[in-house]
């Protein structure tokens, strides 16, 4: 196939695959796999190149964490936490709403947001039923909290997992650079959500007593297994914190944690592997190959050149462009395929534009894609999961019901993120300038001292 035809074919396959993923006419895993098969059959990429484009660090991290969480969920600890949070709120619906939001955000940061909502939503329905209040505000808060919380760490949201795998950024890099702004965004967002839903969160004291009568301890099904799971989970998280210093990939840490948990629990591997969302894993594999074909024929490089022309190759405008583009795009399409496309594009922007430090662009992409997922009910995987669970339980959430609350909050979060990125850029630029100035001053003093020393040495020789 001629080079120009390869470009057209690869682009067409990508767009058609993307269209099927967004429309959900066929399962997104099938769409991604068919797209991958087409670009390989057409010779755009061969088998070896296709394997090269698959990011096995992302795949390994997802599989490892899915196994760990899948075994841990059998203990009932997540139901325990949800009921404990409701009781700590004294059964008051508005306080429960905030408590469940906080639990969701924290668990989304430490595990992943899709798994978190799968665990929290069933308990939420039980609590809302006891209080006889509308469950939809709880679900909307949990969706928004899961995406905000997932933004804070490397393992919290699939886009962050992909960014971390494609760069040299580690767990603590995400925590140090993203968690502060995530805490601010979450606090402001929950405050506004409480104001929005305050009038709907009304019940009687008798029903509040139903919550206080719930026994959270009864949810713990296997205390011995729980201790083993929490120990291994703690060791795994410590491994994530240290993985850059011990020069191990995050996937190695996650898979080692999964192997250790399988060993200490003596659980049947076949049963444990049922916890792995294999359609999600194969969706990623197909997607990596389809995007790899675009990279192979030079489409990604061309788009990167266009972006550099628009921003003049300047770091700050490029970062803000990526932030807003990612946010708006991720609100209306799944943020995973969008980030898969953006990662090679940012790499090419760095290579073509001579941008030395790409970290600013990675933080822009992370904040835009993860927070932008809150814009609509189809913006992120966690959103789609909650919507599906709500429909099965007879509490459907319409597109507009979610949109009119979540989209303005998403825009507000992006404005806050933009201000944070500008401050981050100014701070790091100022520090770099000060460091350069300090080095210059020290160098000048040393040279001056050496010159003075030589002059005094010459004077002594002439006197002699």
UniProtKB/TrEMBL annotation:
<dbReference type="Pfam" id="PF03600">
    <property type="entry name" value="CitMHS"/>
</dbReference>
<keyword id="KW-1003">Cell membrane</keyword>
<feature type="transmembrane region" description="Helical">
    <location>
        <begin position="29"/>
        <end position="46"/>
    </location>
</feature>
<feature type="transmembrane region" description="Helical">
    <location>
        <begin position="58"/>
        <end position="82"/>
    </location>
</feature>
<keyword id="KW-1133">Transmembrane helix</keyword>
<dbReference type="InterPro" id="IPR004680">
    <property type="entry name" value="Cit_transptr-like_dom"/>
</dbReference>
<feature type="transmembrane region" description="Helical">
    <location>
        <begin position="6"/>
        <end position="22"/>
    </location>
</feature>
<keyword id="KW-0813">Transport</keyword>
<dbReference type="InterPro" id="IPR051475">
    <property type="entry name" value="Diverse_Ion_Transporter"/>
</dbReference>
<dbReference type="GO" id="GO:0005886">
    <property type="term" value="C:plasma membrane"/>
</dbReference>
<dbReference type="GO" id="GO:0015105">
    <property type="term" value="F:arsenite transmembrane transporter activity"/>
</dbReference>
<protein>
    <submittedName>
        <fullName>Na+/H+ antiporter NhaD-like permease</fullName>
    </submittedName>
</protein>
<feature type="transmembrane region" description="Helical">
    <location>
        <begin position="275"/>
        <end position="294"/>
    </location>
</feature>
<feature type="transmembrane region" description="Helical">
    <location>
        <begin position="402"/>
        <end position="426"/>
    </location>
</feature>
<keyword id="KW-0472">Membrane</keyword>
<feature type="transmembrane region" description="Helical">
    <location>
        <begin position="432"/>
        <end position="451"/>
    </location>
</feature>
<keyword id="KW-0812">Transmembrane</keyword>
<feature type="transmembrane region" description="Helical">
    <location>
        <begin position="174"/>
        <end position="193"/>
    </location>
</feature>
<dbReference type="InterPro" id="IPR000802">
    <property type="entry name" value="Arsenical_pump_ArsB"/>
</dbReference>
<feature type="domain" description="Citrate transporter-like">
    <location>
        <begin position="18"/>
        <end position="368"/>
    </location>
</feature>
<comment type="similarity">
    <text>Belongs to the CitM (TC 2.A.11) transporter family.</text>
</comment>
<feature type="transmembrane region" description="Helical">
    <location>
        <begin position="315"/>
        <end position="340"/>
    </location>
</feature>
<feature type="transmembrane region" description="Helical">
    <location>
        <begin position="230"/>
        <end position="263"/>
    </location>
</feature>
<feature type="transmembrane region" description="Helical">
    <location>
        <begin position="360"/>
        <end position="390"/>
    </location>
</feature>
């Amino acid at each position: 196939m001629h080079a120009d035809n390869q470009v057209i074919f690869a682009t067409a396959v990508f767009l058609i695959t993307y269209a099927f993923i967004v429309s959900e006419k066929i399962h997104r895993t099938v769409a991604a796999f068919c797209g991958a098969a087409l670009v390989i059959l057409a010779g755009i990429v061969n088998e070896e190149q296709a394997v090269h484009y698959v990011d096995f660090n992302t795949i390994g991290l997802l599989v490892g964490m899915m196994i760990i969480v899948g075994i841990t969920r059998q203990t009932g600890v997540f139901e325990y936490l949800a009921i404990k949070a409701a009781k700590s709120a004294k059964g008051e619906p508005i306080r429960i709403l905030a408590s469940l939001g906080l639990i969701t955000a924290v668990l989304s940061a430490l595990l992943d947001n899709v798994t978190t909502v799968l665990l929290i939503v069933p308990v939420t329905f039980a609590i809302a039923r006891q209080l006889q209040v509308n469950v939809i505000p709880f679900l909307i808060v949990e969706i928004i909290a899961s995406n905000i919380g997932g933004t804070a760490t490397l393992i919290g949201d699939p886009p962050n997992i992909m960014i971390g795998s494609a760069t040299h950024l580690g767990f603590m890099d995400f925590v140090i650079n993203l968690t502060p702004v995530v805490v601010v965004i979450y606090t402001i967002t929950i405050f506004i959500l409480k104001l929005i839903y305050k009038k709907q969160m009304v019940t009687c004291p008798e029903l509040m007593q139903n919550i206080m009568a719930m026994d959270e301890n009864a949810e713990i099904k296997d205390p011995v297994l729980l201790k083993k799971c929490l120990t291994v989970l703690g060791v795994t998280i410590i491994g994530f914190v240290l993985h850059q210093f011990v020069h191990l990939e995050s996937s190695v840490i996650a898979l080692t944690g999964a192997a250790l948990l399988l060993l200490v629990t003596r659980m049947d591997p076949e049963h444990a592997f049922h916890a792995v969302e294999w359609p999600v894993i194969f969706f990623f594999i197909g997607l990596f190959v389809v995007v790899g074909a675009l990279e192979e024929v030079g489409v990604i490089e061309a788009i990167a050149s266009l972006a550099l022309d628009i921003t003049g190759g300047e770091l700050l405008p490029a970062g803000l462009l990526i932030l807003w583009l990612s946010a708006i795009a991720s609100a209306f399409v799944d943020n995973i395929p969008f980030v898969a496309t953006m990662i090679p594009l940012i790499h090419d922007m760095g290579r073509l534009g001579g941008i030395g430090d790409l970290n600013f662009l990675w933080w822009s992409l992370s904040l835009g894609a993860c927070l932008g997922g809150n814009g609509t009910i189809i913006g992120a995987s966690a959103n789609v999961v909650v919507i599906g669970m709500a429909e099965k339980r007879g509490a459907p959430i319409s597109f507009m019901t979610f949109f009119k609350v979540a989209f303005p909050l998403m825009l507000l979060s992006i404005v806050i993120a933009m201000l944070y990125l500008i401050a981050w850029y100014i701070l790091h630029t100022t520090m770099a300038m000060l460091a350069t100035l300090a080095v210059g001053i020290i160098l000048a003093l040393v040279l001056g001292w050496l010159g003075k020393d030589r002059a005094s040495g010459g004077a002594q020789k002439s006197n002699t």
